[in-house]
Amino acid sequence: MVFQDYALFPWRTVIKNVTYGLEEQNMSKEERRSTAQRFIDMMGLSGSEDKYPKELSGGMKQRVALARTLAYDPEILLMDEPFGALDQPLRESLQDHLLDIWREVEKTVIFITHDVEEAVYLSEKVMVMTRHPGTEKETLAIDIDRTRDREAIVTSDEFTSHRNEVWQLLHEETRNQR
After folding, report:
1. Parallel, antiparallel, or unpaired: how do β-strands 125-129 and 108-112 relate?
2. pTM summary value
3. What is the mean pLDDT of each run of 10 residues along the chain (178 residues)?
């Protein structure tokens, strides 16, 4: 699971944060370090292995948290508003990075967000939830050509149509709760 607040151990270095989930697995210390290094490299954090969380930017902390989760090799990756506290340029950069990683590791990702554009940009399906109680209102298939760059995707008619469809469902839900 990847949280909005990173959930890193402040007394552990980057490499030790990433190996944390592997410590209870039947792996040698060298295997744990090698696995961790693979995901540290994948996250673009090479050279930061011996740094502590307080020495990292918010984006770097989030990438460490993602590396730690991926190193554990979960069947499903649950991400609870992981980019919510980041500024827009960094947020978009990490969204693009997440899509690249998703293509490489081929894992199911459940991504929780309140940002409609982020949901449409990152997803093959968007589940719109009701307010109270939080149940499924509707699940939409998002069919977007992701072989293009970000600008081409977010300005496409298909993206706009999906975004508007999600907004319409959210507005309906808001009206129903009054």
Report:
1. unpaired
2. 0.82
3. 74 96 90 95 94 93 90 89 84 88 87 94 94 89 90 95 96 80
